[in-house]
Amino acid sequence: MTVHYSSAMKFHYISHPRRNPAITASLQKACLSRSIEFIQVNPFHFDFTDFSQIPAPGDAIYRSLATTAHNGLSRTVERWLIHRQVATLYSSYERALSQWPQSYVIHAKHSLPQPITIWNVPRDRQLIDRYVEFVHGYPVIIKVTGGSHGVGVIKVDSPASLYSLIDYLHGTCTQTIMRQFITARHSARLIVLADQVIAAIEYSTPAHDFRTNIGHNPIVKAKQFSADINKLAVQAVATMGNLFGGVDILIDAKGQPYITEMNFPCNFARAAAATNIDIASLLVNFLQDEAKTHV
After folding, report:
1. Of 67, 41, 45, 39, whose CA–CA distance to 265 is shortest?
2. Are 113 and 259 a contacting pair, CB within 8 Å?
3. pTM of the model
4. Taking all residues of the chain, what is their mean pLDDT, rounded to a whole number?
5. Are the C-beta atoms of 11 and 60 separated by less than 8 Å?
6. Cis peptide upstream of residue 265 (ω within 30 degrees of 0)
7. pLDDT per residue over 32-85, tens digit each?
8. Mean pLDDT of 125-131
9. Which CATH superfamily is domain 117-180 in?
């Protein structure tokens, strides 16, 4: 792969034009104010034979959110564009090209606190019963992988409901995990960049639901969390081999934190709006500094 040098950093942004308008607009604005050329890459119309699209040394690449169905394509385009001389939000070139497992797998391997998790739920009812006991009994959480805003997070209170639900999900070839149910009225979303939390918000559980981050208009406010929670969020991102991410943490009545997810890329627009922190500018600044080390 041949790369060509340029005199100034360009920001290559992988995203469908109609998705993530708030994130796109904030990143465009941040680039414009710094005289950085903003290049939007549409993965659905990407030409893998056009090598002129390869970023120059000292450029930066950021892949934005995509639907579960389209994430694989966006990731493929990102891998094709990345080389050792561009700035990314991965900790290494090798990590940028790799396919890592779900965050709950990595966090378990690093002994970070999270709800007890069964990584796959079979139809075998004896095994299901054993798993329920292992996660401290009913109610349990069944999570369909790939959802967002609480979609696919199901609280199950009885064996009969669990058996029928698992039968249905297997019939649709849907991958699921089982998790310990944590009683919590609030959850945290912390936005991490490098080794610090740059913004944080708190979600509250609405009436008649057990989930906090649900729908498109959740109950949310800016909040500063303890140093221990911030440190945990930074660890959650670092162990995944990322330099940026959104970490979701449940905090129970005793103050015990449980990591539920680390998202990269993440929807930082809500945290930016709630905290009045210009996350896009911090992101672009960071990548601009990183790019200087890749020229």
Report:
1. 67
2. yes
3. 0.91
4. 91
5. yes
6. yes
7. 999 999 999 999 999 999 999 999 999 999 999 766 557 889 999 999 999 999
8. 97
9. ATP-grasp fold, A domain (3.30.1490.20)
In terms of phi and psi (left: phi > 0; alpha: psi -120 to 50; beta: otherwise), the region of 49 is: alpha
Phi, psi (rounded to 5 degrees) for 272: -65, -40
CA distance 274 to 243: 22
Amino acid at 5: Y
- The pLDDT value recorded for residue 72 is 85
Q: Do β-strands 244-251 and 219-222 pair in parallel, antiparallel, or remain unpaired?
A: unpaired
Residue 33: burial class (beta carbons within 10 Å; 0-12, 13-18, 19+): exposed
Contact (CB, 8 A) for 82 and 97: yes
Q: Which CATH number describes the domain made up of 183-263?
A: 3.30.470.20
User: Strand 196-204 to strand 219-222: parallel, antiparallel, or no bridges (unpaired)?
Assistant: antiparallel
Q: Which amino acid is at 199?
A: A
User: Under a CB-based contact definition with an 8 Å cutoff, are residues 70 and 24 in contact?
Assistant: no
Q: In 10 A of CB 15, how many CB atoms? A: 22
